[in-house]
Amino acid sequence: MNEHQERVDSIAIANTAGLVITGSFDTDVKVWSLAQEAVERDLSGHICGVNYVAVSDDGSRVVSASDCGPLRLWNPRDGSVLGVFLSDPGPYPVVSVTADGAHALTCFACSELCIWDLSTLRVVRSFDVAQFHSCSADMTASGKRAVLGGLDGPVRVLDLDSGNLLHTLERHGGEVRHVAITQDGTIAASAAEDGVLCVWDLHRGVKLTEFSAELGYKSGAPIALKNGLVVSDDGSIVATINNDRSLTAWRVRPPCGAVTVRGDHPFVCCAVSSDGQLLLVGDAAGGVHFLHTTDPAPKGN
Asked: What is the CATH number of the domain that holds 71?
């Protein structure tokens, strides 16, 4: 039985806390037990569909964004609303939360990157990234670095303490609509409308490998900008939601090819555990699937 009533647009994992967070077009945010693969509680309050969720790795804070209204800050342990902020985030805002739940990153309108103090719900740092034409972003668990995907093709790495640009990586042949970074900031992945998925070594600023990836761009924008591409924190697994709404997982370390999985309903978003052993996938009918990478047969809820 599907736990959500409409499509699942976003999914996130708090590995240390053992929690999974899902956001749906049905306006609900759900908190799951990772070990039990079952819903623990609902977080209700959005009046429009939820298109982004982010969770701190310690499980203390969840941030959710919807198609209308402000971002919401939650305590997932008791379901309480801790506050609201950013009253007009715009369509498809990018949201990340630091591992300790102290700060959040937002990126919207391809122009401004903001770091929020989640205890005061005030912006503590902001960066004008209009020059980078950024349409996708992700942040390390420490909140020290961000990776930005540009409409003009490059992938950029930004130091969030100083605002300095650390690397401008090799240019894709089109808009970089998906980026993901490991918690420690050593590995990043990017995928663009040129059909190429790249995996990067951020210490050296070089490309480790690349794959062909048919991500969903036919409608002009993917359903979930951030959750269409994920990389495990150990760098072993990279996964994408494809144009045909299947899921492909590549084993990068050690390299041994790819596996593509299809469900009864189109897949929409995905997340991966820190060790690459578990993929979570949300589908268009409200289902959430727990796929073990050693045997990736869909197990839906």
From this structure: 2.130.10.10
